[in-house]
Specification:
The protein is an alpha/beta fold. About 30% of the residues lie in helices and about 25% in strands. It has two domains: about 5-115 and about 280-300 and about 330-350, NAD(P)-binding Rossmann-like Domain (Rossmann fold); about 120-270, Dihydrodipicolinate Reductase, domain 2, CATH 3.30.360. It binds nicotinamide-adenine-dinucleotide (NAD). Nicotinamide-adenine-dinucleotide binds next to helix 1.
Length: about 350
Amino acid sequence: MVGFGYWGTNIARNLDKLAGPRWRYLVDPVPERRLAAAELYPRVRTTDDLDEALDDDEVAGILIATPAPSHAALTRRVLDAGKHVFVEKPLAMSVADAVTLAETADRNGLVLMVGHTFEYVPAVERMREYIRSGEIGEPLHLHSQRLNLGRIQSDLHSFWSIGPHDVSIANYLLGTEPRWVAAQGGRYLHDGVEDVVFVTVGYPGDVVAHMHVSWLDPAKTRRTTVVGTRRMLVYDDLLPGARLTVFDKGAEPLEPDRHGVRRYRLRDEATHVPELSTTEPLARELAHFLDCVRTGTRPRTDGWNGARVVAVLEAADASLRAGGATVSVPPIEVPPIAPPRFGYPQPDLTPAIP
Ligand SMILES: NC(=O)c1ccc[n+]([C@@H]2O[C@H](COP(=O)([O-])OP(=O)(O)OC[C@H]3O[C@@H](n4cnc5c(N)ncnc54)[C@H](O)[C@@H]3O)[C@@H](O)[C@H]2O)c1
């Protein structure tokens, strides 16, 4: 495991439970971080040298939880050493790097998984089922808020930092590739770094998604709303036990009146709160990575999935620099997958997650 900072400690806690003594190394350049890890996990060897782990033939995979600008180079080193890799979001800081990494992993038959944690949240998985089964009718639009006071970053704006979650959720729920992005934001704390960003993403079929992210906000909010033609869904990550609510609400068209004006009947019926697994999403996510490494299966959030998220982040960046102009999102062309060393099954055969 590489990087034992804020998020790395959460990964380590789960990795220790899932992998036990098979977790061999903890790499971090900061002595205090290594000391903190050594106290908690005395059997794990701590080092500042990633090559120690890369040179060990018994190491099959590496997990990376370092700051985003280091992801592409570290992932590259791990893949070049012939090892499987889990890397935190975002996969890279450019589409070009993300695509190269996805291609390299496929070419070498290696698992490359991106830490899009929210795709392993049971409420989000259930939302996708409701959308795919037609339960909510046609999806019309969605919006999300990811707000809090903190954790303030000084190098990356808030959409690079926390926006990957909302983009990955929207891409996953809709199952289509975004077409365009328009982003506006405000910089208040550090020069050149947007603390608050408002992004609109256009998907095929006139579906729009609006994402509001900020680390300068009074109320912690983590909510995703999906409005369909028949039902509406609200996922509130801060409501234990009621994280997903299905609203049987909608606007049903009536016959036009005598002036030809279409009228609507507003429907407001029962709400439903489905029962969902309470397993920690990060535990499910990491168990999936270990399963994929063991079985040579393509992860659900593979390098191509990561590249599709980076494509939106990069386009949002360009839009911010252009004062909110609409910027196209390049389609991510997934090449036919070469016969891999590990014999990847098709994506719908990914291992079941508890
Ligand atoms: N999936 C999620 O829900 C989630 C949540 C928070 C953060 N993250 C991601 O986790 C990653 C880390 O974020 P954080 O908040 O823990 O950052 P952090 O700054 O708290 O920790 C980063 C750690 O990596 C170490 N590090 C830096 N460069 C390194 C290198 N080259 N090799 C080895 N170690 C190195 C640092 O010493 C530090 O201990 C980011 O990519 C972030 O996007 C994901």
